[in-house]
Amino acid sequence: MAKQEWRLLLTGDMSAFDNMALDEAVLRCVAAGASPSTLRFYGWEPSAVSIGYFQGIEQEVDLDVCREQGVDVIRRLTGGGAVFHEHGSEITYSLAVKDDYPGIPKKVLDSYALLCAGLVAGFRRLGLDAEFKPINDILVNGKKISGNAQTRRFGGILQHGTLLCDVNPHLMFSLLKVPSEKIRDKLIAGVEERVTSIRREMGTVDNAAVIQAMCAGFAEVLDIRLSPGTVSDEELALAERVKEERYANPTWNFKR
Amino acid sequence: MPTQPGTSNADIRCGDYKAVGGKLLRVRMTVSAGSRPVIQALRITGDFFMHPEEAIEDLEQLLTGAPLDEAALRARVQTFFDGEVQVVGADVDDFVAVLLKAA
Questions:
Q1: Contacting residues of A for B52, CB less than 8 Å apart
Q2: Is B11-102 a domain of CATH 3.30.390.50?
Q3: ipTM of the complex
Q4: Do B49 and B87 meet the contact criterion of CB atoms below 8 Å apart?
């Protein structure tokens, strides 16, 4: 059987609002059959905190500090926890397929293992000892290097996640609400102990090489061929619409 | 602090609970006064996953009006889990536990 051909999108650094809007627009177009299955890589400018769909924005985020630091705050379409996306310190990927895509388990929990296997294969191509850790993490040398989140809606599956290039827990926990200063120190120490980064593991970060390795990893695990493509006019228009309706809209961001 | 009419006897309660897998569940609820208190309103937040996501509102709706005892809460949470929803990172026991913690 011929390999499925997927589109590869490299959209560079954008704002949190544009990034999350484009993830949703691509998901909707892929689900509707208007766009091919897609793997996208992107970055964040300015830095941003994203919170999970079910999180309380004021419970999780110190909005005053974020404003002072010029850090955007956004609610994701996906569940999971708060993530600090530092400009230049993270490569983010998103993957969109129809929900009846052959071979993808109907059970969300099972499908993380399959989709994350592409990333694990990618990290291994970089020479790193990577493994999937359920529910939705990837570890290198026993420490977390990637967190992932999935949603299923509009007839499609969207999984997006982080590939950590540098880790900055001090800045991260200054942006997030913590019960006390003592606990803040503990949380920072915990991240230093349990989280790693591509720089820490490899001594350097070559974004293009990381993306290339991940593409090869997904191609291998999903038995696909990736062809560089562009965002369609339909996706761009849809992204503008959902940005206004949702991601740049306080009603959405403050709904919990 | 001024008292809002109709809520003077209600009381706001909060609780956090960490599920076995590490996900955090948080509940904030308004509970009626009296010998058999019921949940008047509640909001469940946290870093778990639920598919479809909007189902969280059904769960909150189901729990509104529930008396604050374990059997009643468990029955309602179980009803929710018996539906089409997929919850990842927390189970029936975890949701019951966070509700009891807040109660």
A1: 152-153
A2: yes
A3: 0.93
A4: yes
Q: How many domains does chain A have?
A: 1
B27 touches chain A (CB under 8 A): no
Please indicate if any CB of chain A lies within 8 Å of the CB of B45: yes
Full DSSP string of chain B: -PPPTT-TT-EEEEEEEE-TTS-EEEEEEEE--SSS-BEEEEEEEES-EEESTTHHHHHHHHHTT-BSSHHHHHHHHHHHHTSS-EEES--HHHHHHHHHHH-
Q: Which residues of B touch A54 (CB under 8 A)?
A: 44-48, 50, 53, 56
The CATH number assigned to the domain holding A224 equals 3.30.930.10
Q: Which domain holds residue A211?
A: 4-253
> Is the CB of B86 inside 8 Å of chain A's CB atoms?
yes
Provide the residue ranges of all domains of chain B, joining segments of one domain with +. 11-102
Would you write out chain A's pLDDT as a tens digit for each of its 256 residues? 678 999 999 999 999 999 999 999 999 999 999 999 999 999 999 999 999 999 999 999 999 999 999 999 999 999 999 999 999 999 999 999 999 999 999 999 999 999 999 999 999 999 999 999 999 999 999 999 999 999 999 999 999 999 999 999 999 999 999 988 899 999 999 999 999 999 999 999 999 999 999 999 999 999 999 999 999 999 999 999 999 999 999 999 999 9
